Each structure stands twice: as structure tokens, then as C-alpha cells.
Give the backbone structure.
Amino acid sequence: MEIEIIRSSILLVTFIFLGGLILKKDQNKKRNWAIFYSLIYVGTTLPIVNYVFVELGLWEFSEKNDIKMPYDLYFLWTIMWGVIPVFFLKKHDFKFLFIIILWLDLLMMPQLEKFGILTLYDNWILGEIALILAVFIPAYLWSYLYYYQKMNGIRAGFQVMIMILLLFVGLPYLLYFYQLIPQPIFRRSSIEFQVLLILAFPALSATQGLVRKGKGTPFPYDATKRLVRNGVYAYCRNPIQWSQTMIFFSLSYYHQSWIFLIGSIISVAYVFGVAEFQEREDMENRFDHEWSVYLSQVPNWYFLWKPINIPKGTIYFDRNCQQCSAIEAWYQEQNTINLEIKAASEYVGTPLTKVTYIDGNGEEENGINAIAQAFDHIHLGYASLGWFIHFYPISFLLQLIIDSMVFDRVEECEINNRKT
């Protein structure tokens, strides 16, 4: 009875704390979104990691439920790791927080066992440290990087990871808990995986484009600094939402349940009923006429076969290299759109050491990435191949292969050299 009073009191204090944060007059919008990102990470990963550790025999809660931990402890744990640390985002706060969090957990876990809430087994301390490494530290890192607007690629990576966990782990188990689908099974199927990858790839490629070209992330409240009009966005205005909608069809087939199709309906309704209006106003405010032109040329929900007005790009080839000249000749034969093909000798600046593509914003791509980027100027078939080639780490591996090859040239070929 005593422990129930303590748990209820802690919950009451926590709700009062959250109410004070919500009702506070002078809101720090930036910190609020940092809290959101931290919360969504902890809330998603904590039950998954705890479930794994319970299955591994590191500890076990006495209360039996679907997430293998008491719901009130899950809530309190999420607040403690997802909200409070975000108020300590200065450079030297992390070491202090890490020590405090570890000390509190090592102190509280035996106390919970004493009150009969859980049972600790061998190596539970290692599990606790692993839990902090897998849940608390990434959540804090995400909120820190967002708050100081650093490393947008890592921030986007967190977003992709959370969406994967929610769609492929969280959602199936949630539906199973409410007995809407049979128990989720994670079987291996190369064909289903390939179909899923094809459907998801426009979103993955679009995310990379938003990071590298737009200098931002897919989340609207961690938005891009530039309007991205090349890559996947030269063919479809909402490739991420398109992929998400199609993924629900594959999930429906995979789990043999029509219930996932509701996700597709909700996704389409969100795009046309909510995102369309919010996006237009926001994009018009940020990009003005450039957005209006793009809006009139690129469809919202399907892919063009040829880009109507992709931003002008220029690709430079070394005409003293037989292989490079052959690739240049191939491009010359294609009916490219807004692609200018030039000799490397025409490049103004430091002499080029690789095939180089320069987009409308002056961003450079070299080597295999340059060739892949230029595919966008042909049609959807070649563009899709280019998105695959350009996707990291595929582009990195392909470039390594090319760099190891010997080309027919008196001097070394530009596509084979690395910048020094």
C-alpha cells in the first residue's frame, strides 16, 4: 500500500510539472521542439529496448502487460529521460547529466526490487548501462543537435529511424495488443524486402536530398533552408508521403491484414486535407516566387516521366579520357532537359580531378555522384537508377570500385582521381 501511495504521488507531481510547462506564458518554441524530439525517441525506443532486455533475462517486472513494464513507470521514465534533460543543453551539461542519470538508475532499480516491483538478475547493471546508451544518450543528442542546429544529417537519420521503428515495430505490436491483427511475425522474404525497399526508396532519396541540398530535414519544424527542386523532387512534390502511403499496402500484405490499409487512407487524407494547406502557406512565406513556379510544374501525388523544368545543371568531362569521353557521348545522345555538357578545361577555378556536376545552387558533385545526378535530366527511368547510385553508402562503395580501376589515358582520368 505504501508503494502505491508513493507511485501515485510521484505521478501527481509529474502531471503538475507538465501542466506548468504547458501553461507557462513565455514559451521557448525551440526548446519545446527539442523536447518533442527527445520525447518521441525515448517513448518509442524505451519499451522496445526494455522488452529485449526482459527477454534476455536481465530483469523482469512483476506487473505483466504487453510492454513488459508498468505503464506508470514507463510514463515517468519517459518524462525523466525525455523532458528534464532538455533543460540542460549547455556544452558541459552532458557529463553531469550522464552521471546523475546513471546514479539514479543504479539507486532506484534495487529499491524497485525491494518493493516487489521487479526482479533483478545477473548482469542487470550491464543492461542498465546499455539502456542508457541506447535510449537516453541518443535522445539527448537529438535534442541538442536540433536546439543548436548542428549536423542536419544526423538529425534526419534520427527521424528516419523513428519512423521505421513506429511503422515496422510499434504499429504492428500496437494492433496486436488490441487484437486487430494476429501476433506479428518477422519472417525473411527477399522478394517482399525488395518490394518494400522500392516503395521506400523515394522517401530515403528525398531525405538525403533535403539534407544535402536543402540543408535541413524532412520534419516541417526542422525544415530546409533551400527549396529542393532536383533529385526526386524534380519528379514529385511529396515523395516521402507517397512512399509512406505505399508502405501501408506492403504492410497489409506482409501481415495479411486489411487494417493497415486504413493507414494509407489516413496518409492520403493528411496530404490533401492538412499538409497541402499548411505546406503552401509555409513554403510561400519561405521561398515566395520560386515555390509558386515549382508548385505549378511538379505534381503533388504522382511522378512525372520527364522533369518539366528541373534546375539547370552542368556536367564537366575530361575529353582526354576514353571512358569519360564515351560517357559524355552517351549523354549527348540523350534528350536531356536543362543539362549543359562541357569539357573539364572550360571549368573556371581549381582544375578538376573528377567528372563534376554543378547544380543550380552551385553545389558540386564529383565522380560517380556527378554521373548519377545528371541522370535526373533524362527521364524517370534513368533518374531512379541515379537516385540508387547517388544514395550513400552505395555511392561510396561504387566510387571505391571506380577508383581502383585503370583507365585508358595518357594522363590519369578525372573520374579515377581523388582530390588532394
